[in-house]
UniProtKB/TrEMBL annotation:
Protein name: TetR family transcriptional regulator
Listed InterPro entries: Homeodomain-like_sf, HTH-type_TetR-like_transc_reg, HTH_TetR, KstR2_TetR_C, Tet_transcr_reg_TetR-rel_C_sf
Organism of this sequence: Frigidibacter mobilis
Key words of the record: DNA-binding
UniProt-recorded Gene Ontology molecular function terms: DNA-binding transcription factor activity; transcription cis-regulatory region binding
Keyword DNA-binding: yes
Source lineage: Bacteria, Pseudomonadati, Pseudomonadota, Alphaproteobacteria, Rhodobacterales
Domain of life: Bacteria
Pfam family, one: TetR_C_24
Endpoints of the signal sequence: none
Occurrences of domain HTH tetR-type (ranges): 1-37, 194-254
Keyword Acetylation: no
DNA-binding region(s), residue ranges: 217-236
Amino acid sequence: MRDIAQEAGIEAGSIYYHFQSKDQMLSEVLDLGVRQLYQAVSEIVRSAPTSSEGFRKTFGLLIETHLTYLLTDSDFTSANIRNYPMLSDETRAPHRELRASYAGAWGKFLNDAKRAGHLRSDISTAVIRQFILSAMNWTVEWYDVDKYPVRILAERMSKLILDGMCPHRKADTEGLKLCPATPAKIPDPDSKAAKTRAEILKAAARVLRDNGYKATTLRKIAEEADMKAGSVYYHFNSKEAIVDEVLNAGLRDLLSGVEAAVRKFDARTIITPR
């Protein structure tokens, strides 16, 4: 409570005049975090046009609204997304109905779009809704609003998702091209240096998985790898360099798995001429 009072620029005793406990304050913060966003999204869904192009524009607006509240406009929303998963079931219980209503607003929008033929018939709206909300909520851990406007993130995310879930149309990839990172010089894989780098990356992946990007430090990575921080700096000059390699390794593993699945599928479906 003392930290909250300092942030608000008031005496700690003044907080107790308005709130009986930290739990009461937390409950109101969580409620506002979703309620404000729910009201904004519900209004967009209610006024959504029914045409295919109208659906795409509305979808983009919904994405931008969610990301804007989460990343720049509402400390209540970001506080909700960051803290809700870590709370006890008892603390979360009063907020489940409102969160379900918010997810329901997205569900209605997607279901209406599917019935109108704006989504592919083989798409599960429940799955795609969960995917969209989870993908947006995770941005609070990695997106740097000081480097790129939220509007750009929203546009790119909208295009990527729409091109995957809508009936076939030429993908609009303008603005989606990524600049490949300059490949790092990797030592001989059998050398001691290469093995140490590999151990650091494995440790970093575990720390990132458990703590998220912002809470991950080179010191934590060194502790997880059971080595001194100086050893980490010898192989990587920054946390960002480690994260880049961890992400690239994850994508390579995913790509290898997908390619293997595709090859296996192709082998089963090849029709041998008679």
